[in-house]
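Justification of computing resources. Each target in the renewal requires a structure prediction run like the one illustrated here; the chain below, 79 residues long, is used simply to show the kind of job we budget for.
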Amino acid sequence: MSSSSREPTQISAAGPRVRRGLPAPLGATILPGAVRFAVFSRHASAVTLLLYDDPRAEPAQRIRLDPERHRTGDVWYAE
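Resulting structure tokens:
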């Protein structure tokens, strides 16, 4: 099976691999052993973070962020 035809791993943001993180700075921030993501959206009711092993392939992982845990105001975040 090629990597482009495999289904992405679905990960709940409540799982052990995804921490709450901080809402700033916006964008992707490389940390020791992790990457922090923070995204501004005034109107989003849900956010799914897509992670790629190969930019030309389908996402390797999809991480649905929990609005109770990963949102402050208009900023969604996780690490």
